[in-house]
Protein: DUF559 domain-containing protein
Amino acid sequence: MNLYLSHRSALMFWRAWSASRAISLRAFHDLRKTDGSLFPGRLYGATAALRTCASSDEDVRNLLCHVADSEVKAWMRACLEEEGALVHVLVERGEGTRNSHKIVRHRSALVYPRGAFIGVAPHLFICSPELVFVQMAASLSFGELLALGYELCGCYPLDRPDGAALVRRPLTSPARLAAFCAQMEKARCVKVARVAARQVRAKSGSPMETELAIAAFTSVQRGGLGVEPASLNAPIALSRAARRATGLNRVVGDFYWREARFLIEYDGREAHASEHRRAHDSRKHDALAMDGIELMTVTAPQFRNVTQSIALLDNAARRIGKPKRKRKQGHLQKHMALRAQARRYHRESLSQKDGGHGLGA
Structure:
């Protein structure tokens, strides 16, 4: 008998997994779009088969209790504590057991793509991050679904008592999300998931970077500003002269348009930054100026002010040679709704306070 964790329980599991398998800040900055070696689908065996599903409370409880791997037990504990011991499981259609106050059963007769279920322990399968994205499309608004996609493809920072600069391991990529959604048929809300997957960008370094990216890069039809997408948290090699003058080998930009040589930095830090931080920022700005890269900074107060942030991002669109598209009447309301949805996702799902700053260096 096999247990298939799904929906929110699977999401909570992968969050715990990605935090426990953290990577260094430098490794995050050096990630390439095509590098899938860090993803769970590459580290465990996977299957498309949904068979011999545990569905009764007793079977689910027994399988959870008999997981031998200590790491998997820790991830399961974090998952269940987050969900208040509520377990979402996937079962084959026709299973007769009703939902209980402990277990939510999602019945399915779908044909799943390859790699839909990842085996992390004997008889224990977790719905893949890509499948979780499709599943959650039925319960999230479009802005919330985008925020989930950015989270799955991003590397959010970890609060470490030792001060180590570590970030959560990415769980998938926009290309993998889009490919998986394209293969799903007849899944509830899969069309919305397909649209959202095509608009997710890789390598967001914080929830606030995600919210800025959603506001800027999402299509106008969906309430975004339709700005040409940038590379997120991309290392920028410096010239020899800039390296010699500043002592920096490279800088990392939050949102970088390489061809236009234009960079946006999100700054959500408190006004009184440390002297070391101010000195580093000054050297970074000098290096960019020497290499002819224009820098625009968007602060947390500016982003919260919808009028100011739209003006700044429209100016960025003109700077990179892609002026804003004409927006129909009522777009502002759609834009504000999109931003509110992404914000709600972070507030309710990640318990993020307003503020925060990117992971550029």
Observations:
- Residues 208-350 form one domain.
- Confidence is low (pLDDT under 50) at residues 352-357.
- The two ends are 49 Å apart (CA to CA).
- The chain has two domains: 3-129, 208-350.
